Amino acid sequence: MRRSLFMAMGLAALLLADSATAQQQVTLRVASYGGLFTESQSKYGGSVFSKRTGIKIEWIDGNPEDHLAKLIASRGRPAPFDVVYFEESNQLKAIETEMVMKLDPAIVTNLKNLYPEAINKQGYGPAMLFWSVGLAYNTKALSENGIPEPTSWADLWNPKFERRLALPDISQGTVTDFIVATARMHGGSEKNADMAFDKIAQLKPLYFFTSSSDLRNKYRAGDVWISVWNNGRSWGMIDEGFPLKFIHPKEGGHGKLTTIDVVATTKHPKEAMMFINQVLDPLTQLGQANEIPYGPTNKVLAPVLASYPDLGKKFPASPEDLKKLYIPDSVAINSQYERWVDLWNRKVKK
In CATH, what is the architecture of 131-255+327-348? Predict the structure, then answer.
């Protein structure tokens, strides 16, 4: 009997060793935003995950709309990545086209610690960050040029901002927020936004940015004085001592979610879900929030953020904070998106 016990223990050890070896041979391809976002996700999530599991991470940077397009284009072939960060509107399209899979709560155990607002009711990937869209501007440049600090989305049409304004490109998720905000100022909405394009076409921006890293450089060079931007990247520059200010316009800033999903055709679904569990870990999320101020969705951190109000003021730190912002209707936006791209290219980016 003792011999049988030792044989069973030996077999178990071999199975565990084989499992560990198999994990060490896995490389997860993770589609991310790039720049500081990928750096912080790698630092607080990816590197910790790799050390703990032996699973390697290969980061593939780009914007969510491009990631979605690549997934759809790969239908019937091996997917270009295993895990993908999306904005809510992109995730809805990915679910509709069956590009992502539902998660197993037995593997993604941190799901139980998330705010209800962060949970996908259908069981797909959760929101891993809360963030917001508003206006960012160089206070020094405005002061030196006698320009009052903005309080409204309408202030972007100040003639003194001509060739000093940066707007998001149509490939950027925040462009839909600007379109909706402009429509709402003129009596429209997500379902009726045509008037926004004629109004936006009146602006004379320096350029349409395709990455936050490039916009950051334009601010530092003094080329851009004001832009439609997000809270995290704006506060990143503020914390570095740059004379930038981020505000939610009086008509309302926009509340946003970043989700994380497992690609439906991945060969490594369990490992991909294990990685998502790491991203949702409270220490990973706290590190991210400290590095780039985006709001954690893990409610375990609520008392921590309450103890550090100077950190919590930089982002939507709870569902209550999100409720103070305007939350665009992603379903309505998706139904109009192709039309909006056409109108943008014909009227705005001409």
Answer: 3-Layer(aba) Sandwich (3.40)
